[in-house]
Write a structure and sequence with these properties.
Elements (H helix, E strand, L loop, with lengths): L3 E8 L4 E8 L8 E10 L2 H4 L12 E2 L3 E6 L5 E5 L7 E5 L4 E2 L6 H5 L2 H13 L8 E5 L4 H12 L3 E6 L2 H8 L5 E4 L6 H7 L5 E6 L6 H7 E9 L13 H6 L3 E4 L7 H14 L1 H6 L6 E6 L3 H9 L6 E5 L2
Parallel strand pairs: 9-10, 9-12, 10-11, 12-13, 13-14, 15-16
Antiparallel strand pairs: 1-2, 1-4, 3-5, 3-7, 3-16, 5-6, 6-8
Helix pairs in contact: 3-4, 3-9, 6-7
Protein backbone atom coordinates (compact mmCIF):
# COMPACT_ATOMS: atom_id res chain seq x y z
CA UNK A 1 0.00 0.00 0.00
CA UNK A 2 1.57 3.38 -1.00
CA UNK A 3 2.38 5.95 1.72
CA UNK A 4 0.30 9.08 2.14
CA UNK A 5 0.98 12.69 3.02
CA UNK A 6 -0.08 13.90 6.46
CA UNK A 7 0.58 16.92 8.64
CA UNK A 8 1.82 16.47 12.20
CA UNK A 9 1.49 19.10 14.92
CA UNK A 10 3.72 19.73 17.92
CA UNK A 11 3.09 22.08 20.82
CA UNK A 12 5.79 24.17 22.47
CA UNK A 13 5.45 26.46 25.45
CA UNK A 14 4.04 29.34 23.38
CA UNK A 15 3.13 28.05 19.92
CA UNK A 16 2.37 25.00 17.81
CA UNK A 17 4.37 23.94 14.74
CA UNK A 18 3.43 21.86 11.70
CA UNK A 19 5.42 19.29 9.72
CA UNK A 20 4.35 17.54 6.50
CA UNK A 21 5.39 13.86 6.46
CA UNK A 22 4.98 10.75 4.34
CA UNK A 23 3.51 7.98 6.51
CA UNK A 24 1.78 4.61 5.99
CA UNK A 25 -1.92 4.77 5.16
CA UNK A 26 -3.97 3.87 8.27
CA UNK A 27 -6.26 0.87 8.43
CA UNK A 28 -9.75 0.94 9.95
CA UNK A 29 -10.08 -0.92 13.24
CA UNK A 30 -13.18 -2.41 14.88
CA UNK A 31 -16.03 0.11 14.88
CA UNK A 32 -14.22 2.39 12.43
CA UNK A 33 -14.26 3.33 8.75
CA UNK A 34 -11.36 4.57 6.60
CA UNK A 35 -12.11 7.95 5.01
CA UNK A 36 -10.52 9.38 1.88
CA UNK A 37 -10.33 12.96 3.16
CA UNK A 38 -11.53 15.64 0.74
CA UNK A 39 -11.46 18.66 3.06
CA UNK A 40 -10.68 19.46 6.70
CA UNK A 41 -11.23 22.57 8.82
CA UNK A 42 -9.09 24.35 11.39
CA UNK A 43 -10.16 24.44 15.03
CA UNK A 44 -8.72 27.08 17.33
CA UNK A 45 -8.35 24.74 20.30
CA UNK A 46 -5.88 22.54 18.44
CA UNK A 47 -3.72 25.22 16.85
CA UNK A 48 -3.41 27.77 19.65
CA UNK A 49 -1.03 26.54 22.36
CA UNK A 50 -2.81 28.56 25.07
CA UNK A 51 -5.91 26.36 24.70
CA UNK A 52 -3.93 23.31 25.82
CA UNK A 53 -5.65 20.76 23.57
CA UNK A 54 -2.37 19.91 21.82
CA UNK A 55 -0.19 18.66 24.65
CA UNK A 56 3.59 19.25 24.70
CA UNK A 57 5.67 16.24 23.70
CA UNK A 58 6.02 14.19 20.54
CA UNK A 59 4.28 15.46 17.39
CA UNK A 60 0.89 13.90 16.65
CA UNK A 61 -1.29 13.74 13.52
CA UNK A 62 -2.92 17.15 12.93
CA UNK A 63 -6.61 17.79 12.43
CA UNK A 64 -9.77 17.01 14.33
CA UNK A 65 -12.65 17.04 11.86
CA UNK A 66 -13.35 16.90 8.18
CA UNK A 67 -15.28 15.34 5.32
CA UNK A 68 -14.65 12.70 2.69
CA UNK A 69 -15.63 9.36 1.18
CA UNK A 70 -15.73 6.06 3.02
CA UNK A 71 -13.17 3.79 1.39
CA UNK A 72 -14.89 0.88 -0.32
CA UNK A 73 -18.42 2.35 -0.37
CA UNK A 74 -17.96 5.94 -1.54
CA UNK A 75 -20.44 7.21 1.07
CA UNK A 76 -20.09 10.97 1.66
CA UNK A 77 -19.49 11.55 5.37
CA UNK A 78 -18.39 14.28 7.76
CA UNK A 79 -17.58 14.23 11.45
CA UNK A 80 -14.92 14.03 14.13
CA UNK A 81 -11.86 12.85 12.23
CA UNK A 82 -8.57 12.66 14.21
CA UNK A 83 -5.63 13.23 11.88
CA UNK A 84 -7.88 14.95 9.31
CA UNK A 85 -5.06 16.92 7.66
CA UNK A 86 -4.03 13.87 5.66
CA UNK A 87 -5.06 12.00 2.56
CA UNK A 88 -6.71 9.25 4.64
CA UNK A 89 -7.96 9.13 8.24
CA UNK A 90 -10.00 6.81 10.48
CA UNK A 91 -13.45 7.78 11.74
CA UNK A 92 -15.32 6.04 14.55
CA UNK A 93 -18.68 4.87 13.28
CA UNK A 94 -20.58 6.64 16.07
CA UNK A 95 -19.09 9.95 14.85
CA UNK A 96 -20.23 9.44 11.25
CA UNK A 97 -22.66 12.03 9.82
CA UNK A 98 -23.98 11.77 6.24
CA UNK A 99 -23.19 14.78 4.02
CA UNK A 100 -26.31 16.31 2.40
CA UNK A 101 -26.09 16.95 -1.35
CA UNK A 102 -26.56 20.67 -0.59
CA UNK A 103 -23.04 20.91 0.89
CA UNK A 104 -19.72 20.96 -0.95
CA UNK A 105 -16.73 19.13 0.53
CA UNK A 106 -15.35 22.42 1.86
CA UNK A 107 -18.67 23.37 3.46
CA UNK A 108 -19.12 19.90 4.93
CA UNK A 109 -15.65 20.06 6.51
CA UNK A 110 -16.64 23.33 8.21
CA UNK A 111 -19.66 21.78 9.92
CA UNK A 112 -18.88 18.89 12.32
CA UNK A 113 -17.09 19.93 15.50
CA UNK A 114 -18.28 23.52 15.39
CA UNK A 115 -21.96 22.74 14.97
CA UNK A 116 -21.78 19.74 17.33
CA UNK A 117 -20.51 22.16 19.99
CA UNK A 118 -23.27 24.61 19.06
CA UNK A 119 -25.94 21.90 19.37
CA UNK A 120 -24.54 20.99 22.79
CA UNK A 121 -24.64 24.57 24.10
CA UNK A 122 -27.81 25.87 22.43
CA UNK A 123 -30.11 22.84 22.69
CA UNK A 124 -28.64 19.92 24.64
CA UNK A 125 -27.65 22.06 27.64
CA UNK A 126 -28.83 25.60 26.78
CA UNK A 127 -32.51 24.78 26.04
CA UNK A 128 -32.81 27.78 23.69
CA UNK A 129 -36.40 28.48 22.64
CA UNK A 130 -37.81 30.50 19.72
CA UNK A 131 -38.15 34.16 20.65
CA UNK A 132 -35.50 34.03 23.39
CA UNK A 133 -32.45 36.31 23.50
CA UNK A 134 -28.95 34.89 22.98
CA UNK A 135 -25.74 36.84 23.69
CA UNK A 136 -22.55 35.60 21.96
CA UNK A 137 -19.23 37.10 23.02
CA UNK A 138 -16.61 36.84 20.29
CA UNK A 139 -19.38 36.33 17.76
CA UNK A 140 -17.02 36.41 14.74
CA UNK A 141 -15.15 33.27 15.84
CA UNK A 142 -15.96 29.95 14.17
CA UNK A 143 -18.17 28.79 17.04
CA UNK A 144 -19.61 32.29 17.44
CA UNK A 145 -20.74 32.52 13.82
CA UNK A 146 -22.20 29.00 13.94
CA UNK A 147 -24.06 29.86 17.16
CA UNK A 148 -25.52 32.95 15.47
CA UNK A 149 -26.61 30.97 12.41
CA UNK A 150 -28.15 28.11 14.37
CA UNK A 151 -29.92 30.43 16.83
CA UNK A 152 -31.50 32.40 13.99
CA UNK A 153 -32.59 29.16 12.31
CA UNK A 154 -34.20 28.18 15.63
CA UNK A 155 -36.08 31.50 15.85
CA UNK A 156 -34.04 33.23 18.58
CA UNK A 157 -32.79 36.83 18.69
CA UNK A 158 -29.03 37.37 18.85
CA UNK A 159 -26.72 39.98 20.35
CA UNK A 160 -23.02 39.64 19.47
CA UNK A 161 -19.80 41.30 20.60
CA UNK A 162 -16.62 41.64 18.55
CA UNK A 163 -13.54 43.86 18.48
CA UNK A 164 -13.98 44.31 14.72
CA UNK A 165 -16.70 46.56 13.35
CA UNK A 166 -15.97 45.14 9.88
CA UNK A 167 -16.74 41.61 11.06
CA UNK A 168 -19.91 42.75 12.82
CA UNK A 169 -21.13 44.40 9.62
CA UNK A 170 -20.56 41.14 7.74
CA UNK A 171 -22.56 39.21 10.35
CA UNK A 172 -25.58 41.52 10.03
CA UNK A 173 -26.26 39.74 6.75
CA UNK A 174 -26.53 36.48 8.72
CA UNK A 175 -29.20 37.98 10.95
CA UNK A 176 -27.23 39.47 13.86
CA UNK A 177 -29.88 41.58 15.61
CA UNK A 178 -27.69 43.69 17.90
CA UNK A 179 -23.96 44.13 17.12
CA UNK A 180 -21.78 45.48 19.96
CA UNK A 181 -18.30 46.68 18.99
CA UNK A 182 -16.07 45.90 21.99
CA UNK A 183 -13.47 43.52 23.42
CA UNK A 184 -14.00 44.82 26.95
CA UNK A 185 -16.47 43.80 29.69
CA UNK A 186 -18.59 46.89 29.06
CA UNK A 187 -21.61 45.57 27.16
CA UNK A 188 -24.16 45.22 29.99
CA UNK A 189 -25.97 48.51 29.34
CA UNK A 190 -26.36 47.82 25.60
CA UNK A 191 -27.69 44.31 26.33
CA UNK A 192 -30.21 45.62 28.83
CA UNK A 193 -31.37 48.31 26.41
CA UNK A 194 -31.85 45.73 23.63
CA UNK A 195 -33.82 43.36 25.87
CA UNK A 196 -36.04 45.97 27.51
CA UNK A 197 -34.20 45.63 30.82
CA UNK A 198 -34.88 41.91 31.18
CA UNK A 199 -31.48 40.55 30.22
CA UNK A 200 -30.73 37.61 27.94
CA UNK A 201 -31.88 34.01 28.29
CA UNK A 202 -28.60 32.38 27.21
CA UNK A 203 -24.99 33.54 26.92
CA UNK A 204 -22.31 31.80 24.86
CA UNK A 205 -18.96 33.00 26.20
CA UNK A 206 -16.19 32.40 23.66
CA UNK A 207 -13.93 35.07 25.15
CA UNK A 208 -13.11 33.76 28.64
CA UNK A 209 -12.56 35.00 32.16
CA UNK A 210 -12.21 38.71 31.45
CA UNK A 211 -15.89 38.98 30.44
CA UNK A 212 -17.38 36.19 32.58
CA UNK A 213 -18.68 38.51 35.32
CA UNK A 214 -20.19 40.85 32.71
CA UNK A 215 -21.93 37.87 31.10
CA UNK A 216 -23.51 36.97 34.45
CA UNK A 217 -24.70 40.58 34.81
CA UNK A 218 -26.39 40.35 31.40
CA UNK A 219 -28.44 37.26 32.28
CA UNK A 220 -32.13 37.56 33.05
CA UNK A 221 -34.14 35.45 35.46
CA UNK A 222 -33.60 31.76 34.77
CA UNK A 223 -30.71 32.57 32.45
CA UNK A 224 -28.06 30.08 31.32
CA UNK A 225 -24.37 30.70 30.67
CA UNK A 226 -22.24 28.45 28.44
CA UNK A 227 -18.46 28.64 28.80
CA UNK A 228 -16.92 27.39 25.57
CA UNK A 229 -13.68 29.25 24.78
CA UNK A 230 -10.83 31.43 26.00
CA UNK A 231 -9.88 33.90 23.29
CA UNK A 232 -8.44 36.07 26.06
CA UNK A 233 -6.41 33.24 27.62
CA UNK A 234 -8.01 34.02 31.00
CA UNK A 235 -9.21 30.89 32.83
CA UNK A 236 -10.42 32.50 36.08
CA UNK A 237 -13.12 34.91 37.19
CA UNK A 238 -15.17 35.82 40.25
CA UNK A 239 -18.78 34.61 40.43
CA UNK A 240 -21.60 36.80 41.76
CA UNK A 241 -23.21 34.21 44.04
CA UNK A 242 -26.12 36.53 44.88
CA UNK A 243 -27.02 36.79 41.18
CA UNK A 244 -26.55 33.04 40.72
CA UNK A 245 -28.85 32.40 43.69
CA UNK A 246 -31.55 35.03 43.28
CA UNK A 247 -31.91 34.84 39.47
CA UNK A 248 -31.79 31.00 39.51
CA UNK A 249 -29.01 30.94 36.94
CA UNK A 250 -27.40 27.89 35.35
CA UNK A 251 -23.68 27.90 34.51
CA UNK A 252 -22.31 25.08 32.37
CA UNK A 253 -19.25 24.12 30.37
CA UNK A 254 -19.12 22.94 26.76
CA UNK A 255 -16.15 20.69 25.98
CA UNK A 256 -15.42 17.27 24.55
CA UNK A 257 -12.02 17.04 26.24
CA UNK A 258 -13.08 14.41 28.81
CA UNK A 259 -16.09 12.86 27.05
CA UNK A 260 -15.92 9.25 25.91
CA UNK A 261 -17.30 7.90 22.62
CA UNK A 262 -20.83 7.06 23.82
CA UNK A 263 -21.13 10.49 25.48
CA UNK A 264 -20.08 12.24 22.25
CA UNK A 265 -22.47 10.02 20.31
CA UNK A 266 -25.42 11.58 22.19
CA UNK A 267 -24.55 14.96 20.68
CA UNK A 268 -23.99 13.43 17.22
CA UNK A 269 -27.48 11.90 17.30
CA UNK A 270 -28.94 15.20 18.50
CA UNK A 271 -27.20 17.01 15.64
CA UNK A 272 -28.54 14.50 13.09
CA UNK A 273 -32.05 14.92 14.51
CA UNK A 274 -32.16 18.71 14.96
CA UNK A 275 -29.57 20.28 12.65
CA UNK A 276 -28.98 17.94 9.70
CA UNK A 277 -32.45 18.63 8.20
CA UNK A 278 -31.66 22.37 8.35
CA UNK A 279 -28.44 21.82 6.39
CA UNK A 280 -30.19 19.53 3.90
CA UNK A 281 -32.89 22.15 3.23
CA UNK A 282 -30.39 25.01 2.93
CA UNK A 283 -31.74 26.84 5.97
CA UNK A 284 -28.31 26.37 7.58
CA UNK A 285 -25.01 26.72 5.68
CA UNK A 286 -21.62 27.18 7.35
CA UNK A 287 -19.76 30.44 6.79
CA UNK A 288 -16.42 29.53 5.19
CA UNK A 289 -13.96 32.39 5.51
CA UNK A 290 -11.28 31.04 3.15
CA UNK A 291 -10.28 27.76 1.49
CA UNK A 292 -6.60 26.77 1.24
CA UNK A 293 -4.81 24.07 -0.73
CA UNK A 294 -3.34 21.19 1.31
CA UNK A 295 0.21 22.52 0.97
CA UNK A 296 -0.89 25.88 2.40
CA UNK A 297 -2.11 24.65 5.80
CA UNK A 298 0.66 26.71 7.52
CA UNK A 299 -0.77 29.87 5.91
CA UNK A 300 -4.26 28.97 7.15
CA UNK A 301 -2.82 28.45 10.63
CA UNK A 302 -1.19 31.90 10.47
CA UNK A 303 -4.52 33.50 9.52
CA UNK A 304 -6.17 31.85 12.52
CA UNK A 305 -3.39 32.96 14.87
CA UNK A 306 -3.82 36.53 13.60
CA UNK A 307 -7.57 36.31 14.33
CA UNK A 308 -8.21 37.58 10.81
CA UNK A 309 -11.04 35.23 9.85
CA UNK A 310 -14.81 35.47 10.13
CA UNK A 311 -16.16 31.94 10.24
CA UNK A 312 -14.23 28.78 9.36
CA UNK A 313 -10.89 28.18 7.62
CA UNK A 314 -10.83 25.06 5.45
CA UNK A 315 -8.12 23.07 3.67
CA UNK A 316 -8.94 21.25 0.42
CA UNK A 317 -7.21 17.86 0.07
CA UNK A 318 -7.06 16.78 -3.58
Amino acid sequence: MPPMKAYFIQSGSKETTLELREVPRPEAGPGQVLVRVRAASLNRGEFLAAHGLTKPGAAKPAGTDGAGEVEGTGERVMGRLPGAFAEYARMDQHDLIPVPSSLSWEEAAAVPLTFLVVHDMLLEQGDLKPGEWLLVTGVSSGVGVAALQAAKALGAKVIGTSGSSEKLNRLKALGLDVPIHTRKPDFHDAVMQATGGKGVDLVVNNVGGTVFAECVRCLGYGGRLATVGYLDGSMKSEIDLDALHSKRLKLFGVSNKLRNGPQRAVTVQGFIRDFLPLFASGKLKPLVDKVYDFKDLPAAKARMEADAQTGKLVVRID
